[in-house]
Amino acid sequence: MPELPEVATYQKYFQYTALHKKVNHVDIADERVVRGDADVFCEALKGQTFEETDRVGKYLFVRLSSGQWMSMHFGMTGRLKYFKDQEDKHRFTKVMFGLDNGYHLAFVCPRILGRLGVTEDPAVYQQEKKLGQDALKISLEGFKEQLAGRTGLIKPLLMNQSFVAGLGNWIVDDILYQTAIHPETHADQLDDEQIEQMYEKMKYIIKTAIELEARYHEFPDHFLITHREEGAKSTLYQGEIIRTVVGGRGTYLCPNGQVLEEK
């Protein structure tokens, strides 16, 4: 699934290509990717100009000149493609916007798990979807408040989108790896220093991923993602990476550095 860094990259792509362009027409190839009535969606977009963008976790929002917002969730394989000639249209295009400059913006989604919709406001959508604060926008105080009183395992908690929006599997694994915290540590076992380290690493990892436009092979060598496979050697802890399952998700860690303390 596209993670927060990929969605931030799509946001930049949208801004560089389609922002401030007017929608002349909307072609929907598969109504399953549209939230609600497809005809209502088309009517809401036709004739509108894309004014600005916003992002909450893994969701991208585009303000229309009408004041409404288009919501975009990319599912497992969704992405955007900007092109001019019809022969460049991707075969998995599900929705295509014809723009007033003669170009097209396509929502490409091979597995039909992405969704487009219209909402009055990103904050309203965030509330409807029970999304927590965005991982890049939340303050340290807000992060601590979210952890206060929690007793569950730290990895599933960080991945819960109502806790903090935007943290996916590999990002959480890297946060815990770089802070030497075992993913099965209970939240109430963490001290203030560990919480602050987690917060700082969360910001650092996401910002690095956005700067590198999610090209994982270019990440610094001390990132877990650069050798995230069972049996690989940890550059931080000089031990083997192992794979286990925590909260139903495949999880990578190095027991040399991430020691599980008894509760």
Topology, element by element:
Blueprint: H1 4-17, E1 23-28, H2 38-45, E2 50-56, E3 59-64, E4 69-73, E5 79-83, E6 93-99, E7 104-108, E8 115-119, H3 122-128, E9 133-134, H4 140-147, H5 154-159, E10 164-165, H6 169-178, H7 192-211, E11 242-246, E12 249-253
Helix pairs in contact: 1-7, 6-7
Mean pLDDT: 95
CATH superfamily of the largest domain: MutM-like, N-terminal
* CATH third-level topology of the largest domain: N-terminal domain of MutM-like DNA repair proteins
User: What composes the largest sheet?
Assistant: 4 strands, antiparallel
Question: Order of strands across the biggest sheet?
Answer: 1-6-7-5
The best one-word shape is: elongated
Task: State the CATH architecture of the largest domain.
Answer: Alpha-Beta Barrel
Q: Which structural class best describes the helix and strand composition?
A: alpha+beta
Overview of this protein structure:
Helix content is 28%, strand content 23%. It is an alpha+beta fold. The strands form four sheets. A four-stranded antiparallel beta sheet has the order 1-6-7-5, covered by helices on one side. It has a four-stranded antiparallel beta sheet with strand order 2-3-4-8, sandwiched between helices. The chain folds into two domains: 4-128, N-terminal domain of MutM-like DNA repair proteins (Alpha-Beta Barrel); 133-253, Helicase, Ruva Protein, domain 3 (Orthogonal Bundle), CATH 1.10.8.50. Helix 1 runs parallel beside helix 7. The two termini are 33 Å apart. The chain has helices at residues 4-17, 38-45, 122-128, 140-147, 154-159, 169-178, 192-211; strands at 23-28, 50-56, 59-64, 69-73, 79-83, 93-99, 104-108, 115-119, 133-134, 164-165, 242-246, 249-253. It is elongated, with a radius of gyration of 20 Å. It has seven helices and twelve strands. Strand 6 and strand 7 (104-108) form a beta hairpin.
